[in-house]
Amino acid sequence: MESSSGSITQFYNCLVLKDHNLVKDYLYVQDGKIIDPAKMFWEEKRTPDVRIDCKGGIVAPGYIDVQINGAFGYDFSNDTDIIEEAVENISKGLLLQGCTAYCPTTVSSRPEVYHKVLPHLGPRKGSIENGAAVLGAHIEGPFISPQKKGAHELATLRTAKNGLSDFDECYGLENLRKYAAYVTMAPEVEGITDTISALIKETGISIASGHSNATTAQADEAFKKGANMITHLFNAMHPFHQRDPGIIGLLGASDSRPFYGIICDGIHVHPHSVMIAYYAHPNGACLVTDAMSAQSLPDGFYKLGEMDVDVHGGHVYIKGTNTIAGSIATLAECVRKFIKFTGASKVEALENATLHPAQMLGISDKKGTLTHGADADILILNQDLDVQRVFIAGVEATSNNVRFKQKL
């Protein structure tokens, strides 16, 4: 039998995240993929070409952030004239943090902004040259509730009373097919729930409920039509009430329940609320940063879309208000804080930033897992879950071979 030509790398002296456990084992990589060593040993009679000592650390899939508005001074909704520069530098910067795949997120914007930026936010492979993989855009708005707009510009919001034609006019249906991963919308906004099924069928994207004043009944109807995600749980939504818990109530459903993004920075969601969500639906949690352009930069004034925001002391507010406008957290920080807030295991916390986001997007055969055939996007972590080494498509990413710049 002809032997595969690619170099084989073995990760050893480690605990590998597999089958919902941390297992003392080896991991093998060839040609950018996780491989089954049985074929290497018994059929090809090969031994590893490169051996990497993980020094007793944890080997996990690379982190996946499905909601991030910007970082390193760049903003996906505002930097329309330098959008390729923004994607390049954010992708490379995130990779060095341990985030190996992400959904660039746009806030509610005018149609001309979507038509300009979406072609630059579509899927692209992760590599040393590209940085973290882009999984497609997360379009947050503008089909959201004015009462729960949060840090979204009121003048951009709209309804879908004309069904698919409104989405086509706003985003371009072809743009959704080619470049989007999912869209956040409010179920109660005119035309939304009636159009969800058709929009999914027409474009293949996922739908999230968020920035919404929906009742539980409205949220449940959207879920039945195909909305499988809740955007930043507890934020910008109908507050929990015992007789009508709103979108939050879907976590208590007796049958299937949606995934939910949760910003675990200690600012957006109280630790007790994180604990409630964890106990209600642990397998649905997707840790997200909702980071904006000031992530990894000093305090000061920055942009979120076309709005000015004030960043100080770890908090982000729309300038001159007390309205929270994203975070400056990293996903690695959110993973550690999730354990602190909930007492969850390392496995659970890691899967909230790897497996669950991949499952939500329907890509868990290749991302968010270390199963055979998956992309070799790998982290080596110490026992405190600090990122020690990062690999993208099987190649180690370091500050020497992944260079990016900040927009100051």
TrEMBL record:
Substrate binds at A151, N235, A236, R243, H268, I324, A325, G326. It comes from the Eukaryota. It is an enzyme of class 3 (hydrolase). Zn(2+) binds at E140, H211, H232. One of its GO terms (biological process) is N-acetylglucosamine catabolic process. Pfam families: Amidohydro_1. Belongs to the metallo-dependent hydrolases superfamily. NagA family. The active site is at D290. Its cofactor is a divalent metal cation. The keyword Repeat does not apply. Transmembrane segments: none annotated. The keyword 4Fe-4S does not apply. This is N-acetylglucosamine-6-phosphate deacetylase. Binds 1 divalent metal cation per subunit. Its EC number is 3.5.1.25. It catalyses: N-acetyl-D-glucosamine 6-phosphate + H2O = D-glucosamine 6-phosphate + acetate. Residues 58-395 form the Amidohydrolase-related domain. One of its GO terms (molecular function) is metal ion binding. Keywords: Carbohydrate metabolism, Hydrolase, Metal-binding.
